[in-house]
Amino acid sequence: MKNLGILLSGRGSNFEAIARNIQAGTIPARIAVVISNKEDAAGLSRANEMGLKSLFLPSKGKDRETYDREVVASLKEYQVDLVCLAGFMRVLSPYFVRAFPGRILNIHPALLPAFPGLDAQKQALDYGVQFTGCTVHVVDEGVDTGPIIRQAVVPIEAGDTVESLSARILTEEHRIYSEAIRLMLSGRVRIEGRRATFEP
Ligand code: GRF
What we know:
By secondary structure, the chain is an alpha/beta fold. The chain has 2 domains: 1-100, Rossmann fold, CATH 3.40.50; 106-200, 3-Layer(aba) Sandwich (Rossmann fold). Helix content is 36%, strand content 26%. Helix 1 (13-23) packs across helix 6. 5-O-phosphono-beta-D-ribofuranosylamine binds next to helix 1 and strand 5.
């Protein structure tokens, strides 16, 4: 059984969707630890309620690598095989990325490489695209740049607001994040350069 480590900073709905799929038996893994850099993150309380190992590791006042060394040490302590960023509002240092090469996933609420960074749903609306969506990618040393594992397209509708669009994207996020985790754990993913291919 593989061990997942979840990193979050807020609501934690992606984390909950992953936890539900594990309970339902559709992801062959266990959540070994949930770590938040925010003490009041709703996702952290949920993890607690679910009886999962949950840790608040404060980042305030620490430089990026010092903090990341603490997080990596915890992930190693809990023997994490795959790190899942689920609304973790920090950019990882090269130290972190190199500690888990090809074994960190992130979910982004846009069709990368369009609209990286913050407020991706607002960026898509402001730009006037007709389709946006979400992307699960392997984390490399850039921001929202690593090889893509799964994407889903979400059409923008007349009258959409950031809230209505975000809600429709979120439904797809919950679906594709678990699919991507399943794929990664299956050992069928081959990554060459930027391209991920999947063995049958
Ligand atoms: C999601 O929109 C995700 O794509 C982005 O941050 C948000 C986290 O939401 N990276 P939640 O905390 O999983 O509910």
